[in-house]
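Table 4 source record.
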Amino acid sequence: MTDGSSKPAAFGEVGAALHKRGDLQLITELVPHGARVLDLGSGDGLLLEHLRREKGADGRGIERDPQAILACMRRGIPVVQADLDAGLADFPDRSFDVVIISHTLQQVARPRHLLLEAGRVGRQVIVGFPNFGHWQIRSALLLTGRMPKSPMLPYEWYDTPNIHLLTLADFEDFCAREGFGILRRMVLRYPCWRQVRLLPGLRAAYALYLLDATGVHSDHGAGASRQEAAEQILVVEE
């Protein structure tokens, strides 16, 4: 990691945010130098800004929230305004080296479609999601009979943005079925973001995967979705 003393003054704020979201630094380690990167659900553009600084990445994001889009523009990050459930219609096959889906997969209505589209557009896919198999979640559901909450998933059942929760085993079964190759897996504690070595399915709060998308099976329904989504996508660039 580059010495922060050589960065402009604003780097202090960026460094603090990266410490809070420790997975961003781990994602940065997975991205090759000079890679073309597409970040799905890019938020305020912090990750893409960091990738540009540390890895010389050529990146752009997709984001729906107008305030987050403005934040990306302030950072000088090209961003596409679109709903991820509509797919990635404007992007040709293999147009990116890496597609990133971090803290987003469990919030979309069509996660399978999004993953297959990411595998079509990118050569590699980085996916990060909360592990619903964490022991605190399992025990809370068993002992209280209510939808559990945790530091990673703090919402009530009626206001949560997380609508497709999954476990490590669920995701790895999906990868095997759809043709994604798992190149690397990092299973992490929260909020320290340290890797879990023993019983990861129970002890990991968050999982981060680097996937090889070259063997991904095509989504036969994607063509219609791309056509429907084509008119909904707007590129916003400073």
